[in-house]
Design brief:
Elements (H helix, E strand, L loop, with lengths): L6 E4 L3 H12 L6 E3 L11 H13 L6 E11 L6 E2 L2 H16 L7 E13 L2 E13 L15 E3 L11 H7 L1 H15 L5
Parallel strand pairs: 1-2, 1-3
Antiparallel strand pairs: 3-4, 3-5, 5-6, 6-7
Helix pairs in contact: 1-5, 4-5
Length: about 190
């Protein structure tokens, strides 16, 4: 059995690591941050992207219990755009660009879809999926978080993710729900001491 601190989150995004760490700390678990540079395939399916990443990373971290996560923002009024290409779109046009694309669109419903892959050992993976519904605001609001946080309002709240503290965001967000599920799974399967 592995020690509590032998869990690795593979991401190049410090903000994602901070969110995941806050959730894991609620369960008495700690995460190690590791940034492994692997080629990311371009695909229309988040599940295919996450499985590819997990497989490639397992070649490097084959003896580690690790987690990989990937997320997309799907906006109904934009036919699901940016979806799987959310990271690229954010880097290209940002929140302001999405808001410009949404000008004149009444249906502002959207959702974040997030997949997490937990690598157990010997090419055995457990995949988790979480969807959080919400809508796109009419302007950027808030100073916290990252990415599309200033324009996404989750169902059940009137605040954007960027208007929430880290702890509150984790109660509403796709990543918070995802890492809650992963932490519970790790503990239920006694994968750590």
């Amino acid at each position: 059995m592995r020690e509590v601190n032998d869990i690795y989150f593979v991401t190049g995004n410090r903000h994602k690591f901070e969110e995941a760490s806050e959730i894991f700390s609620r369960y008495g678990l700690s995460l190690n941050w590791v940034n492994v540079d692997v080629e990311e395939i371009q695909n229309d399916s988040l599940i295919d992207v996450i499985i590819w990443k997990g497989y490639e990373i397992s070649k490097i971290l084959s003896d580690k219990l690790f987690i990989v996560e990937d997320t997309g923002l799907f906006i109904k009024g934009l036919n699901g755009f940016p979806g799987v290409y959310s990271s690229y779109v954010y880097k290209s046009i940002g929140c302001k660009g999405i808001l410009r694309l949404m000008e004149g669109i009444d249906d502002r419903s959207a959702y974040f879809l997030s997949y997490g892959l937990l690598y157990l050992k010997d090419n055995v993976f457990k995949v988790f999926r979480v969807k959080v519904d919400g809508y796109i605001s009419y302007e950027e609001r808030g100073v916290h978080g990252f990415g599309f946080d200033p324009i996404f309002i989750p169902k059940g709240s009137d605040k954007t993710y960027a208007e929430m503290s880290l702890s509150l965001k984790n109660d509403f967000s796709h990543r918070g729900k995802l890492f809650n599920r992963i932490a519970k799974y790790i503990l239920s399967r006694r994968l750590v001491e």
